[in-house]
Each structure stands twice: as C-alpha cells, then as structure tokens.
Automatic annotation (TrEMBL):
Pathway(s) served: Carbohydrate degradation; glycolysis; D-glyceraldehyde 3-phosphate and glycerone phosphate from D-glucose: step 3/4
The keyword Metal-binding is annotated on this UniProt entry: yes
Catalysed reactions, as listed in the record: beta-D-fructose 6-phosphate + ATP = beta-D-fructose 1,6-bisphosphate + ADP + H(+)
Keywords: Allosteric enzyme, ATP-binding, Cytoplasm, Glycolysis, Kinase, Magnesium, Metal-binding, Nucleotide-binding, Transferase
Coiled coil regions in record: none
Pfam families the record matches: PFK
Cofactor(s) annotated in UniProt: Mg(2+)
Gene Ontology terms: biological process: canonical glycolysis; fructose 1,6-bisphosphate metabolic process; fructose 6-phosphate metabolic process
The EC number(s) this enzyme carries: 2.7.1.11
Family per record: Belongs to the phosphofructokinase type A (PFKA) family. ATP-dependent PFK group I subfamily. Eukaryotic two domain clade "E" sub-subfamily.
Entry protein name: 6-phosphofructokinase
UniProt GO MF annotations: 6-phosphofructokinase activity; AMP binding; ATP binding; fructose-6-phosphate binding; identical protein binding; metal ion binding; monosaccharide binding
C-alpha cells in the first residue's frame, strides 16, 4: 500500500519515567531507527529532537533533519543517540510556547514521543494546547495567520520505554527484556561462586513501584525467595524464609539466591532492604551471605533480540498511526498484546497507571493491572511450596533436538505436579528410553538448579514412538502412568499424533497427553512461539553484532550467515530484522537468480554511501540449489572491485522466557482433563485429551493435535501459515528496499480493558 504523510514527522527523545526523573534504556535506538526509516520510506521529512523536551524548547541545532544513514549502526548500541534531559521549562506554558514556535518554524506537525507516563502526559498536554499556542504566537507576531491554518493540528503517538514494565495496556515495554537479560547474566555469574563457597546471595534489582523484574528473574533463575512491592510478605515472613533456606541446605543445595526489588515492603508498609535480608540470614542461620546491588547495569548494555524486534515493530506502527491520524483522533500509544501491535488511547493508559498508583490495593493491582503479572506470581508460589498428597502419576519426557529452556520446562513440570499432589516420573532419552524402561520417579530436589542449564538433562532423541508402541504401553501399564507431558519440537507433535491414533489398539494411551513446544526452529503448528527460539535468536543476533563490529575497520565487506531452522525461516527472518541485515533468504518465500542479482546491485549502491558493509542471512534449507557456498561465490564474483565477501555457518551454537507460564498451564490442563474424563474408555473417544499448548495471538490455548493436522505441512515440517511472515516486508523496508507493506492488520484504536482472575483461569493468560 502506497501511503504519504501530510506535514512533517518529528521525533522526541524524552525518556522520562516520571516528570521528575529521566531514564535511558537499552533499546531506544531500535525504535529511533525504525521511526526514521519508516518516515523516510513514506516520503516524510524526519527530524531528531536532541535532549528530549529541553531540545524542543531550546531549538536551534537541537532540532535537526536526518537521513537514512543517520541511524545506521545504532541497533546494537545501548542508550539513545538523541539524548535525554530533564526539562523544567516544558512544564510551563512559556516553555511549551517556545517549543511550538520551534516546531512550526520547521513545519513539524507530527510528534513521536518515546518515554514513560510522564513524558507521554506532557506530550498530550502539548497537543491539547497546540491551537491556543499557535494563536498566541500569531498575536505576538512570531508567525502569520497562514501558518496558524497550515499547522493547525499536532498529532502525537507514544512508545513506552521502561525497564520496570509498569505501563498499563502493554504486555511488554521497550527495554524490559534487555534488563532481564542483564539480571540473569549476573545471576548466572554469581551462582558459580555461590556454589563453590556455599554462600547465600541477596540480589537487589530495580523496581521502586513494580516488582516485574524481581519476580520474573526469580522465576527464571529458580530463586529461593523474592520480595516485591505488590505482594508484601505475611507477618512472620522472617521465620518462613529461614525455614525454607534451611530446608534447601538440608537437601544438599550449596547456595541460596534471594531477589529483592528496591521498592519491596512488608505488611506494615516498612521497606525490606537487601541489607536487612542479609543481616537476618547471618544472625539467624549463620550462612555466609553477600549482597549485590545491580543498579544501572540493568539499564544499559546490548539490547536483546526481542527488544530490537519489539522496538522496530512499534516504531513502524507509530509512523502508520501518524499517517492515519486526523484532527479528531486522540493521541495514542503503541503497545504489544500477545504478538500483535495495538494502539490504545494515550491518556486512558496514563490515567489507569495513575489510578493504581494512588490506590495501592496491592492484591487488586496484581489481579487487574497487568495481564501477565498474577500468573507469574502464582507460578512462583507454586514452584516454592509442595503438597504431600498424591492424585495420579505423570510422566515427563523430551523429544527431538535439544533446545534452551527444556530443563526449565521439566523443572516446572515436576514442581508444579508435586505441588498439585501428583507423583512425577522422568523418562530418559525420549520414547526410545521409554520403551526400554528408562523411567524413574523424580523428586522436588532432583530438579534443583536446572533452570540455567542448556540442552536436555533427561536426554532427548528424535525417535518417534510408532515402532515401540507395544513396549511403551507396557511401561505405562507397569508404572501406572495416568498422564503424559511431551516437551519438544515437531517430533513431539508427531509423536502425540501417533499415540492418539494408536488409542484404539492400546488402552494405556487413553490418558491426558499434552505437547509443550520446545524447538529453536519455531516450526510447531498451533503456537506462535516455541521454547528455545528466543535463546537461539539471541545467539544469532549476538554473532551478527560481533561480525559487523569486526568489519568496522574493513570497508566494503559483505557477510553471508547461515542459520538453522530446517525449512522454517523464522530464525533467518527475525534474526535479519533484529540485526539490521540487508537480506534474508527463506524457504517460505521462494527466490531466483534475478532476486539474488537485485540484492547484489542493492549492496553495490549501498557501498557508495557512508554505510560500507552488508549482512545477508540464509536459512539452511531455503533452496537446494542456491546453497550458502553458491550465494557466497555469486556475491564474491558480482561484487568484484566493489566489495569482498565472507561466509559463516553458525551451526549448533544456536542450540526461558515462556517456559514457566506454559508449563503451569499444561499441568492445570492435565489435572482438569484427568478429573473430567476419569474413565479411560471416555478418553478413547475424545480428541481434546491429546492437546498442544501454544500461544496464539494474545492467549495461551490448548488445541487438539488431531485438529492441527490440517494446518501442517508434514513434508517440510512447518505450519501452513506463519504469523511472522507478515513482518518480512518490515525487514525489507528498514533495509531500504521498495516493497509493499500490508497495513490491514495495523492496530485499530482499542480501549484499555481490565482483566479479572476469572479471565486468567479461562485462558486469557
């Protein structure tokens, strides 16, 4: 769709979380880059406003028109290239009057603000006053009446930047995922020394009013205890915590991790500090205890792949929102809901946040404000306590290639199962091991420390159960297995299909069976995301960053990178978007020699600019003839005299984000299904008792594997429809290719909704 913007586009770098404080986050530059390049793509003039609202008030060299090359090589850079500063003058009408004059002088009528609720509130006030400010400028003789009419309306679109993930209306704010990466990196480093010296570490993370970082990092690293402002511990928490730490040491655990949000409080509204927790552990237990305060480390560093893609998508959506804005359109903020970009009225979001800050009814805040917060909290509580009663026996096994997060998934399965009173069994080496009787009961302590370990501790094989059906049925009967959890990729999905089809012959398979998708390829039907894909994507992006850095001193060089994924181009396409690549070759979008030649010509033109390096990603099975070697040789030959070429095959280095949420839902599903269909004969006639748990758009959903067969390309082991293909034009646009961009899915303006616990139970997780 060809679209044009009336007026000019401007970007503000105001990054204030609240009016009195400004903060910079790891992935602002990806949003800046996307807005600039999308704006230029739709033939708009784009301006930087340096130093936030202060630069808008000061004008002069702080408001500068920028080009395509101005945002080159900033994707991997933390902070923001356009700066940020406190601005008291913008809070006054005189300051806003001067800012309006500076914008009108340059013909700027559209503003994209990247910041928190304070910045966005200021932007909305500026918009509301705009016509009055212009009239006042005309009365003072600074602008004429023609300018008042020409620039009569100011359009505002906001993007939320906050590591606390504390803005209402979005599942994730820009910078949060990168901050979590920093925290987990520190925890992983600390755990090695804590293990060696049998120490307890108290980690303080940011979160003055919101405990998201503390809670999710506690889930990801398997912390022993966590303190957050939204959930003050009950009276006597000191005794409970010390008992828990002692029990863990008694189970021969050599370390303890306690995570404290900086705003943590007790039930009397008194602060719980990291030093207070440390002193308590030392005095009562005598454990060697250390405190680590992460501080501003969490704000900086290289952005994660998720944050880069999120910021790029939001930047493009912000420009589209400005294109479609009318004088009657309220200022909006671009948000993320599931895997969809949505637009919400800016002031509805700000007012909702303000409302909950005024009324600190903590339980209600957890329940209603943030869609994922309550589920994370409940998951942490489930994984921290256990019940003695036994309901039924559940077997857990891994199938297919190893993927990061498999061990965390097994840990969650075991602990949630035990918490619900079930007896858990671990199957070694997939279905092949199952047939050979390699099954054993697994306890709470057996899975301690599994969250941070890669690969598959249980062992995993690609073997499907078809040739072992009788032996597997014998083992299920011998061990009285009442439910089966299969964690893996496409092979896990196929395995459950085979077990479902074999129910008529083997009554033992008439039990609840559920697949938890775990594969770096992200090629399992029925889910938008798989466990392990995010980790693999980060490995690819990190490698691409290093390769691009190595080329910084060598001009005119193009790198050809081969990624894994089988026939699924998810890693290549999303890696290209996150790394700022010039092209990505995937199986889902067929290409020929003419397109390869066009890409070479595109890179040849690029080398004439100040950006004298290129990056091309290729999915390993994108084309049987146009191999990585062929593309490398073609680029080398056609680029002779203009650029030279290098190639790199990433291989198995590509081998925890959604794991716990998915696994908790899976356990609850199997328990509910088993109780509803207590008779095994009933199971034989119900397709919904063999399900795959996946994320579809905004929700986690259980889908019968039998129904997913029609959505599957079994020859190439990919879903017939894949959501991420809609982002492919975005990657091309940001690489300066002329292409069409489907705006039919662009976020229409929605309204902020409040979610109740009942909605969470019914699948709106």
């Amino acid at each position: 769709t060809s679209v044009f913007l009336s007026g000019h586009l401007s970007m503000s770098g105001a990054l204030a979380v609240v009016p009195r404080k400004y903060c910079v986050y790891a992935c602002m530059n990806a949003a800046v880059r996307a807005v600039v390049r999308m704006g230029i793509y739709v033939k708009a003039k784009v301006y930087f406003v340096y130093e936030g609202y202060q630069g808008m008030v000061d004008g002069g060299d702080n408001i500068v028109e920028v080009s395509w090359e101005s945002v080159s090589s900033i994707l991997q850079v933390g902070g923001t290239v356009i700066g940020s500063a406190r601005c008291k003058s913008f809070r006054t009408r005189e300051g806003r009057l001067q800012a309006a004059y500076n914008l009108v002088q340059r013909g700027i009528t559209n503003l994209c603000v990247i910041g928190g609720d304070g910045s966005l509130t200021g932007a909305n006030l500026f918009r509301e006053e705009w016509s009055g400010l212009l009239e006042e400028l005309a009365q003072k003789g600074k602008i004429d009446e023609e300018a008042v009419k020409k620039y009569a309306y100011l359009n505002i679109v906001g993007m939320v930047g906050s590591i606390d993930n504390d803005f209402c209306g979005t599942d994730m704010t820009i910078g949060t995922d990168s901050a979590l990466h920093r925290i987990i990196e520190v925890v992983d480093a600390i755990m090695t020394t804590a293990q060696s010296h049998q120490r307890t570490f108290v980690l303080e993370v940011m979160g003055r009013h919101c405990g998201y970082l503390a809670l999710v990092s506690a889930l990801a690293c398997g912390a022993d205890w966590v303190f957050i402002p939204e959930y003050p511990p009950e009276e006597g928490w000191e005794d409970s915590m010390c008992v828990k730490l002692s029990e863990n040491r008694a189970r021969k655990k050599r370390l303890n991790i306690i995570i404290v949000a900086e705003g943590a409080i007790d039930c009397h509204n008194k602060p719980i500090t990291s030093e207070k927790v440390k002193d308590l552990v030392v005095q009562r237990l005598g454990f060697d205890t250390r405190v680590t305060i992460l501080g501003h480390v969490q704000r900086g560093g290289t952005p994660s792949a998720f944050d880069r893609i999120l910021a790029s998508r939001m930047g493009v959506e912000a420009v589209l929102a400005l294109l479609e804005a009318t004088p009657a359109t309220p200022a909006c903020v671009v948000s993320l809901s599931g895997n969809q970009a949505v637009r919400l009225p800016l002031m509805e979001c700000v007012q909702m946040v303000s409302f909950w800050q005024k009324f600190t009814i903590l339980l209600m805040l957890v329940t209603y404000l943030f869609r994922s917060f309550e589920n994370n909290l409940n998951t942490y509580k489930l994984l921290s306590h256990k019940k003695p009663d036994t309901n039924f026996n559940v077997a857990v096994l891994n199938v297919g290639a190893p993927a990061a997060g498999m061990n965390a998934a097994v840990r969650a399965a075991v602990r949630v199962g035990i918490t619900e009173g079930h007896k858990m069994f671990a199957v070694i080496d997939g279905f092949e091991g199952f047939a050979r009787g390699k099954i054993k009961e697994i306890s709470w302590g057996d899975v301690g420390g599994w969250t941070g370990q890669g690969g598959s501790i249980l062992g995993t094989k690609r073997t499907l159960p078809a040739k072992y059906l009788e032996k597997i049925a014998d083992q299920m009967r011998t061990n009285n297995i009442n439910a089966l959890m299969v964690i893996g990729g496409f092979e896990a999905y196929e395995s459950c299909l085979q077990l479902h089809e074999a129910r008529s012959r083997f009554e033992e398979f008439c039990v609840p069976i559920c697949v938890l998708p775990a594969t770096i390829s992200n090629n399992v039907p029925g889910t938008d995301f798989s466990i392990g894909a995010d980790t693999a994507l980060n490995a690819i992006v990190e490698t691409c960053d290093r390769i691009k850095q190595s080329a910084s001193g060598t001009k005119r060089r193009v790198f050809i990178i081969e990624t894994m994924g089988g026939y699924c181009g998810y890693l290549a396409n999303m890696g290209a978007l996150a790394a700022g690549a010039d092209a990505a070759y995937i199986f889902e979008e067929q290409f020929d020699i003419r397109e390869l030649q066009a890409n070479v010509e595109h890179l040849t033109e690029k080398m004439k600019t100040s950006i004298q390096r290129g990056l091309v990603l290729r999915n390993e099975n994108c084309n049987e003839n146009y191999t990585t070697d062929f593309i490398y040789q073609l680029y080398s030959e056609e680029g002779k005299g203009v650029f030279d070429c290098r190639k790199n095959v990433l291989g198995h280095m590509q081998q925890v984000k959604m794991t716990l949420k998915l696994q908790t839902s899976l356990n609850l599903y199997e328990q509910r299904t088993y109780r509803e269909h207590y008779s095994r004969k009933v199971f034989a006639n119900t397709d919904d008792s063999v399900c795959l748990l996946g994320m579809r758009r905004r929700n986690l959903v259980f889908q019968p594997v039998a129904e997913l067969k029609t959505e599957t390309d079994f020859v190439h082991r990919i879903p017939k429809e894949q959501w991420w293909l809609k982002l492919r034009p975005l990657m091309k646009i940001l690489a300066k290719y002329k292409t069409s961009y489907d705006v039919s899915d662009s976020g229409q303006l929605e309204h902020v909704a409040m979610h109740s616990p009942k909605e969470a139970e019914t699948g709106a997780i």
